[in-house]
Design a protein that fits this description.
Blueprint lengths: L1 H11 L4 E2 L9 E6 L3 E8 L2 E5 L9 E2 L1 E4 L4 E3 H10 L4 E3 L12 H9 L5 E3 L6 E4 L5 E2 L1 H20 L5 E6 L5 H13 L3 E7 H11 L10 E8 L4 E13 L3 E14 L4 H19 L10 H18 L4 E10 L2 E8 H7 L1 H5 L3 H10 L8 E5 L6 H11 L13 H13 L3 E2 L4 E6 L3 E11 L2 E12 L3 E3 L1 E7 L7 E6 L7 H7 L3 E8 L1 H7 L4 E11 L5 E15 L2 H16 L32 H10 L1 H22 L4 H10 L8 H9 L2 E9 L1 E6 L7 H41 L3 H6 L2 H20 L6 H50 L10 H27 L10 H24 L14 H5 L14 H7 L13 H4 L5 H9 L18
Parallel strand pairs: 2-12, 12-13, 14-19, 16-21
Antiparallel strand pairs: 1-20, 2-3, 3-4, 3-5, 6-7, 6-8, 9-10, 10-11, 14-15, 15-16, 17-18, 21-24, 22-23, 22-26, 25-28, 26-27, 27-31, 28-29, 29-30
Helix pairs in contact: 4-5, 6-13, 7-8, 17-18, 18-19, 21-23, 21-24, 23-24, 24-25, 24-26, 25-26
Length: 982
């Protein structure tokens, strides 16, 4: 059992090594952003992974922010206000991110929260909250506030600043929604290491704690996550893979994802709320319709959320709300059967995400080893029942923390991405849920008729792994042109999902400078216009750069070519020139002239090859030939016009790329080197889904959020000063009647202080609660100044007994030490006369000062300022301590004095027992005196002395006994240096 515990501890130990150069804060955090709740976790030196507790010591915090005219509240405090004033509380912001005002999700939000006014942004077309002319907030700004609050909680918990975070988002978030989360984090001043899909974070957490169970056989696990706002089913494969850098390591790969954007616990809460409202109206205790009262409906929603939780464990429950409306109480019994009937159509949708995930992964349920529940709403019994029936398993897995798994997985990823921690590698291959393609129009001519042909090329297929870089090559353009980046086939989505998805068109890329690049390099062969794309770790698609690539042939000598080949061979022997593809390599995607629609397999990193060509000349030649040959083979499959040239190049293999037959003959005679030339092409991006806010807008939002934060801090500072002033007044008034204070204060002073305290108390009642922080500080400073002398006298009298006792003890110790030091024989004395006289002087002066000052203090009245001060006593103590410690250290490190060898050595027995400390060597010592004077001398026939026997802690009696037992036979001569003298 102990071994298993140690194994588990070593497994979950996240921090293996801290970088020694780091002296600043290195803690990182994760934020699991849910629809209704958020969970934070941190990693810091000495703390591997830990969930952050909020101010209420809870492990999860409501995703809510309350904005009043002069107040801002978060979490549970904001939810408390939502019952009284729901218009000021904003929550469930996730459904508004990256959405235009006409999106069905915005209309649904307005229906669910009618107390809010959502208006259209005239520039970006998105929705924003308008509470008043002064209070208008974008959903990204509100989310930024929540993120900043989460960082504050994490910093308080970690006790150090934090700026790096990994944030979870739903797997079904599209490009616009992901960018919106990044913009919110930017407004909050938070550095996002990565946006990680919440299902992927759960999978990381599951895999990290089962690292030893993962082997080279793939194990498929399905995570079914039903939260407050949505449901996601994810199929994950766990398997060990070989890596170049870290050897064999575990890896998870997302194989299939299915989701239902509107299926979640919040919809169940709303239906229960409406049912309770119906029951209240049927009781006819009020003529008003409770559904028209926003405050009453907020109370019913809170009760409905409690009711759903209780009905998960009970058959029925009595719902009740005091003072629901017009001081009328509400009370009614609700059964689990009624709840299940209300949500019957929702439970029918439970199997949907499972089937979608299986379809996306091209798997059957038999291939799934286990189905694991995640998310709070999976605790509803009917959900588990419907899911169990859908998956056909005997039982559902409940072996992870349904609420905290995503936050813990995300914080592991945060530590892995941070440079401050070294963690055990765990490879993650996430998958893009939505395919992305490139579309372009090109003019073609058939039988003399020119037509425009619209082409589509898949850039990232559905469930394509990322992060990944890809290159698309346009080789039929020699002038400026444009192409579009759009979502691919979304037929797997329902019509409702597509309408909520938003714009299917992402970006139009307008290229300029293509024509001028061709004019500049007329003598070179064009290798096409290459657009480099990158889907980063956050699942955000970026266009890195566009370049126009040309290739020229440079002649070189045979000898140089041979040396190059030899160098290339040697480098290969020593590990260079490996042809194995790196993990997450670039997958080149060309237009129809280079790659047919069915092509596009992973493994060819065109971008990597182009970079390598710049460094190695021989490898450059080989890679270029292979790439060109491959491209021409693909071209042969799609274009018949160049078939003759392609056939010739295909036969010649890797010898040539785009050359004629006579050039091949020449190449055999003289070696050739290919040189690549690239010209950067200017790309203008026209965004079609959701415009990014301008730099001015972002700075304005940052300033708005910072002003609110400063206001909150100023308010907290004022409240702190106000509380300090109140406490000082009440505590000082009470102290005036305590014996310690009455002893040191005169009647006149007491009357003055009491009067000022009473005046301050009256001022507090009349003006204090509206006074500024500066006024409160001034008032507190005046009162402290008035009472300073009184507090000083009391404090001094309280310190005297301990300080004087310490000084008396120090004087006694120092005096005893001085007396002992003076008794040391002159021959063994290690202290100088000056040192001993200095210590004696300090002792005498301190004793005199103490006696005179104490006597003088006893003559003075307690109401006067004391002349015996604790700081003076501490100064005297410090001086004495310094002098004594100096002499003690000198004694500690002093070396024993060497003694001359005895001249008369007729008797080896006597010379061995001679005491080297004695200076009178003229008269030979008797045997008896030798025994008594050298108790520590080792005798012949004895065992070698141990450490303890050679120290000067040995007792004299034991040494004498050993001497008496020795014989008078011949012994070895003992060196003077062998003695340890005191």
């Amino acid at each position: 059992m102990g071994g298993r515990k140690l194994g588990l501890i070593s497994l979950v130990c996240l921090v293996l090594a801290m970088l020694p150069s780091y002296t600043v804060s290195v803690a990182v955090m994760s934020v699991d952003l849910g629809s209704e709740w958020m969970k934070m976790a941190i990693v810091k030196p000495g703390v591997p992974m830990e969930i952050v507790l909020n101010k209420e010591s809870r492990r999860k915090t409501p995703m809510a922010v309350c904005l009043k005219e002069n107040e801002r509240l978060f979490g549970d405090s904001a939810l408390g206000v939502s019952v009284k004033n729901p218009k000021t509380v904003y929550r469930h912001l996730q459904s508004l991110l990256g959405k235009k005002h006409n999106n069905p999700q915005v209309a649904l939000y307005q229906k669910r929260f009618p107390e809010h006014e959502l208006q259209k942004d005239p520039v970006r077309g998105t929705a924003f909250f308008k509470n008043s002319e002064e209070m208008q907030f974008l959903p990204e700004e509100l989310l930024g506030m929540v993120l900043n609050y989460s960082r504050g909680l994490a910093q308080d918990f970690a006790e150090q600043p934090i700026k790096d975070a990994v944030i979870t988002v739903p797997a079904f978030f599209n490009q616009a929604e992901r960018r919106a989360v990044l913009q919110a984090a930017q407004m909050a001043g938070l550095k996002v290491l990565q946006l990680i899909n919440d299902n992927t974070a759960v999978a990381v957490n599951y895999g990290v704690f089962r690292r030893k169970d993962i082997d080279n056989t793939a194990k498929n696990v399905m995570f079914y996550d039903m939260g407050s706002g949505s449901t996601t089913a994810t199929i994950v494969s766990y398997q060990t893979v070989k890596t170049k850098d870290a050897g064999t390591q575990p890896q998870l790969q997302i194989r299939g994802v299915g989701f239902d954007r509107g299926l979640g616990g919040f919809e169940m809460d709303l239906r229960l709320r409406d049912h309770l409202a119906k029951l209240f109206n049927e009781q006819k205790k009020s003529k008003k319709d409770v559904r028209e009262n926003h405050r009453a409906m907020a109370k019913l929603l809170k009760e409905a959320q409690r009711l759903k939780t209780v009905l998960s464990a009970n058959i029925d429950f009595m719902a009740q709300v005091e003072g629901l409306m017009d001081d009328i109480d509400f009370k009614s019994k609700v059964t689990r059967a009624e709840f299940e009937e209300l949500c019957a159509d929702l439970f029918e949708r439970v199997p949907g995400p499972v089937q979608e995930a299986l379809t996306a992964a091209e798997m059957k349920m038999d291939e799934i080893e286990q189905v694991i529940l995640v998310g709070g709403s999976t605790r509803v019994p009917k959900v588990q029942e419907a899911l169990l029936k859908a998956v056909g398993k005997e039982e559902l897995g409940k072996n992870i923390n349904a609420d905290e798994a995503a936050a813990m997985g995300a914080v592991y990823q945060a530590a892995a991405l941070s440079k401050a921690f070294k963690v055990k590698p765990f490879l993650v291959r996430d998958a893009a849920v939505f395919p992305i393609q490139v579309e372009f129009t090109r003019e073609t001519e058939e039988e003399g008729v020119k037509t425009l042909k619209h082409n589509k090329r898949i850039l990232f297929q559905r469930m394509a792994p990322y992060p990944q870089r890809k290159v698309i090559t346009f080789n039929r353009y020699n002038d400026d042109f444009s192409f579009d980046i759009n979502y691919g086939d979304l037929s797997f989505l329902s019509q409702e999902e597509i309408s909520a998805f938003g714009s299917l068109n992402l970006t139009t890329v307008k290229l300029s400078g293509v024509g001028s690049s061709f004019q500049k390099h007329t003598d070179a062969e064009s290798k096409g216009i290459k657009a480099h794309f990158n889907m980063d770790e956050s699942g955000v698609l970026l266009l890195d750069r566009v370049e126009s690539v040309f290739e020229t042939i440079v002649e070189e000598k045979e000898e140089e070519s041979t040396l190059t080949k030899l160098g290339n061979t040697i480098s290969t022997l020593f590990g260079g020139g490996s042809s194995e593809p790196a993990p997450n390599v670039t997958e080149p995607v060309q237009d129809e002239e280079e790659v047919p629609p069915e092509a596009g397999k992973e493994g060819k990193d065109e971008d990597s090859k182009e970079d390598a060509q710049k460094d190695e000349a021989a490898k450059e030649k080989q890679d270029g030939s292979e790439k060109s040959a491959g491209e021409e083979k693909s071209q042969e499959k799609t274009e018949e016009t160049d078939s003759k040239a392609d056939m010739k190049e295909e036969k010649e293999g890797e010898k040539s790329a785009n050359t004629e037959g006579d050039k091949n003959t020449e190449k055999k005679a003289k070696p050739q080197k290919k040189s690549k030339i690239s010209e950067d092409i200017t790309a203008e991006l026209v965004i079609h889904d959701i415009l990014n806010p301008s730099e001015d807008d972002v700075n304005s939002s940052k300033k708005k959020l910072q002003d609110l934060t400063d206001r909150d801090l100023a308010k907290q500072e004022r409240e702190k000063t106000l509380n300090s002033l109140e406490a000082f007044i009440f505590e000082t008034q009470d102290k005036m009647y305590q014996d310690d204070y009455q002893l040191v204060v005169s009647e006149e002073e007491k009357e003055q202080i009491s009067r000022k305290l009473s005046e301050a108390s009256e001022w507090m009642d009349e003006e204090g609660y509206t006074a500024t922080t500066k006024q409160l500080r001034e008032k507190l400073s005046q009162l402290k100044s008035l009472c300073k002398d009184m507090f000083f006298r009391v404090e001094e009298r309280r310190k005297w007994p301990d300080r004087l006792a310490a000084l008396e003890s120090m004087l006694n110790t120092s005096t005893f030490f001085l007396r002992s030091a003076k008794l040391i024989p002159e021959d063994d004395q290690i202290f100088t006369e000056v040192e001993l006289n200095m210590l004696e002087k300090v002792i005498n002066e301190t004793t005199t000062w103490k006696n005179e000052t104490v006597a003088e203090q006893e003559k003075r009245s307690p109401k006067e300022r004391p002349i015996l001060l604790s700081k003076d006593i501490e100064s005297k103590l410090s001086l004495l301590d310094r002098e004594v410690n100096y002499l003690l250290n000198k004694a500690k490190f002093a070396k024993p004095k060497s003694k001359p060898k005895p001249k008369n050595s007729t008797s080896s027995d006597k010379s061995n027992k001679t005491n080297d400390t004695a200076e009178e060597k003229v008269i030979p010592p008797t045997e008896e005196s030798s025994k008594s004077e050298s108790p520590e001398e080792a005798q012949p026939g004895e065992a070698p002395p141990t450490e303890e026997s050679t120290e000067h802690k040995d007792s004299d009696s034991q040494s004498e006994k050993e001497t008496e037992e020795t014989t008078t036979g011949p012994t070895e001569k003992t060196q003077p240096g062998d003695h340890i003298e005191l």
